[in-house]
């Protein structure tokens, strides 16, 4: 007696169904591949600006980023006539800082405070009309997906002078 090694032949409708299921599976697999090829998952960056009370705030931030990728974040605070002896004080959402593998600010803040929701950074007044600050950071490892609005505010004394609201998507 011979041992049969080939499966039973499919009927026409079974073969059609199997072919269609393979096509659907390949299409579902291709969607994230094509999306990645077009940069949907980042990295992408952009800039936002705001002004008020004599201050101008420009923020360069990651619009979409993935785990362990450099997250370009910098800001410039400009005040016509300079800052005098007053420090430059900014407030940033703690949730944004928590998503990053934080290294350091350049220049380094002279003071820092945290209330659990926001971090307040104080910088020594620069010579001239502008303070340029950049953050050396990467998107934190093992991040899950999130898509949120964050805020960076320059303070004039105890009140908000200018706020840039920015949106960042963190992909795993």
How does the SSE layout of this entry go?
Elements: H1 12-37, E1 44-52, E2 55-66, E3 73-79, E4 88-93, H2 94-98, E5 100-106, E6 111-114, E7 118-123, E8 130-139, E9 146-156, E10 159-171
Parallel strand pairs: 2-10
Antiparallel strand pairs: 1-2, 2-3, 3-8, 4-7, 4-9, 5-8, 6-7, 9-10
Protein model, in words:
Helices cover 18% and strands 49% of the residues. The chain is α+β, with helices and mostly antiparallel strands and 172 residues long. Strands 1, 2, 3, 4, 5, 6, 7, 8, 9 and 10 form a ten-stranded mixed β-sheet that branches. A hairpin with a 2-residue loop joins β9 (146-156) and β10.
Write a compact overview of the structure shown:
With 172 residues, the protein is of the alpha+beta class. It is built from 2 helices and 10 strands.
**Would you count the extended β strands for me?**
10
The largest sheet, given as strand count, sense and whether it forms a barrel, is: 10 strands, mixed
H/E element order: HEEEEHEEEEEE
Low-pLDDT residue spans: none
How helical, in percent, are the residues? 10-25%
Please state the oligomeric state of the protein chains shown. single chain
- Beta percentage is over 45%
Distance between the termini: 56 Å
Q: Helix/strand/pairing class, anyone?
A: alpha+beta
Query: Helical region count?
Result: 2
Report the average pLDDT across residues.
91
Calculate Rg over CA atoms: 25 Å
The geometry reads as elongated
């Amino acid at each position: 007696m011979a041992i049969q090694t080939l499966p039973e032949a499919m009927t026409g409708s079974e073969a059609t169904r199997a072919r269609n299921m393979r096509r659907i599976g390949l299409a579902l697999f291709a969607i994230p591949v094509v999306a990645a090829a077009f940069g949907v998952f980042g990295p992408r960056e952009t800039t936002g600006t705001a002004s008020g009370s004599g201050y101008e705030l420009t923020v360069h931030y990651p619009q979409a980023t993935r785990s362990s990728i450099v997250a370009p974040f910098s800001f410039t605070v400009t005040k016509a006539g300079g800052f005098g002896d007053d420090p430059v004080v900014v407030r940033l959402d703690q949730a944004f800082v928590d998503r990053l593998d934080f290294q350091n600010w350049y220049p380094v803040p002279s003071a820092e405070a945290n209330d659990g929701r926001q971090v307040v950074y104080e910088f020594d007044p620069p010579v001239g009309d502008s303070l340029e600050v950049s953050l050396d950071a990467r998107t934190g490892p093992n991040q899950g997906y999130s898509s949120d609005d964050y805020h960076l505010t320059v303070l004039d004394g105890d009140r908000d002078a200018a706020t840039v609201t920015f949106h960042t998507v963190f992909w795993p």
